[in-house]
């Protein structure tokens, strides 16, 4: 990445603020979010990717996970709580066959909603029982971002402002298609924008999948197709939250992406991934890997 691209990236990061007055004079605003995790229903393996995506949406000012911590089923979560400053909420499984965790999450969500201090909720569960909760929160004009696996009932997905599949998220280190030099450059680019490493990587992962989905015979992917794929499959992807004008502006800041401009005035953009030798056009860490 040349010095000019880093400078542009730096200027963009300076226009993005994360305090309560974020967006004054720039039109940018960082949403204050409550993250409520159904510990009985979600694996700890996706936690890094989860908070990477949430960082794209706003600031997670409330982070809670619910479950019976006296049992063994939450053992994987215990070692990850401090990594992401998640507050464990104890809920005893007092009635066999009844999910007490759901009830506790719903009660807390409504309490938080009526405090009027949040811009959105992230409900992390594949349980359709949260459908009515999502509908109720959105009736108050508050966004609900859902996260769950491929078995999540459509009713819950439809009730959310956006929905992200947890099984599509990738843990750090699963970017084998990048050369060591490009990976180092990407880390520097992420720091320049003020994004966390997890958030920058998840944005790059989403871009990689979109580029692969839109690739044409000449090996390039029209940016219009990339943007459409992102809108349909990755609604959490919003570079504008961080001062980028759109996917093209974000791609221009990524050392792992080449941008080609064609047409009058260079308005027709196509993109291509910079891959290390030995990986195919959408290969090793891409689709089907």
UniProtKB/TrEMBL annotation:
InterPro entries: LOTUS-like, NYN, OST-HTH/LOTUS_dom. Residues 32-166 form the NYN domain. Residues 1-30 are annotated as: Disordered. Residues 206-267 form the HTH OST-type domain. It holds the Pfam family OST-HTH. This is HTH OST-type domain-containing protein. It comes from Agrobacterium tumefaciens str. B6. One of its GO terms (molecular function) is RNA nuclease activity.
